[in-house]
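Re: that backbone. Tokens:
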């Protein structure tokens, strides 16, 4: 059997372009899956914190955060949010920056590593991003994270224990160290089979094309080995 394509995605729960990139990747892979020789793909998410110094309970809205973090005016920040909201809508996502609760995401990343061990990482990544960008949920707080973990099919008590123990923090830091080794300084960033890098929220068609190209390389390698 041909080895699956491995797609490693560095992203942050609080990155609006990461959710758009996630949705476009899914659409592109779904398009390629309709091929007669459909690619087999395994996707894994990795931790990246855009603003690790953000407090859990940030005072102000998303425009306030952008204005402070990037040193721009409130009007410029609002314009940036309006633009990304439009791009998100094109991807089928209804962003609600008016109710979004900006927060520190390290605990959410720890929970994603716990979910990976339980075989539910993709489900939790979707649940966390949806909660953050479209529902105004506070993904920096333990109770909210546990509730979202349960939504994603995880055991609530086990999720809470994983968060309180801090035992997945080392895995978060290892992801960040790998990102640094790859030279990744912005997300989303997609690493295909450990050798191709794709930066940014590419359109679905681009992901479909990449999947087909790399799958053809896998097939050629199989034939050469036969």
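Recovered sequence:
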């Amino acid at each position: 059997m041909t080895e699956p394509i491995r797609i490693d995605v560095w992203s942050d729960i609080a990155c609006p372009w990461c959710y758009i990139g996630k949705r476009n990747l899914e659409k592109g892979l779904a398009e390629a899956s309709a091929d007669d020789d459909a690619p087999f793909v395994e996707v894994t998410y990795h931790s990246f914190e855009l603003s690790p110094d953000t407090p859990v309970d940030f005072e102000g809205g998303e425009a306030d955060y952008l204005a402070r973090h990037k040193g721009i005016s409130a009007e410029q920040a609002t314009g940036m949010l309006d633009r990304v909201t439009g791009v998100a809508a094109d991807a089928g996502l209804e962003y609600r920056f008016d109710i979004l609760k900006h927060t520190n995401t390290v605990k959410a990343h720890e929970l994603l590593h716990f979910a990976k061990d339980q075989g539910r990482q993709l489900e939790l990544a979707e649940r966390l991003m949806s909660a953050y960008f479209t529902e105004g949920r506070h993904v920096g707080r333990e109770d909210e994270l546990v509730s979202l973990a349960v939504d994603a099919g995880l055991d609530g008590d086990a999720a809470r224990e994983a968060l309180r123990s801090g035992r997945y923090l080392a895995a978060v830091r290892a992801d960040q160290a790998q990102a640094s080794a790859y030279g990744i300084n912005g997300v989303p960033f997609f690493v295909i089979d450990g050798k191709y890098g794709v930066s940014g929220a590419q359109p679905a068609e681009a992901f479909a094309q990449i999947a087909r190209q790399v799958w053809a390389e896998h097939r050629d390698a199989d034939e050469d080995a036969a």
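The radius of gyration is 18 Å. The longest helix spans residues 204-225.
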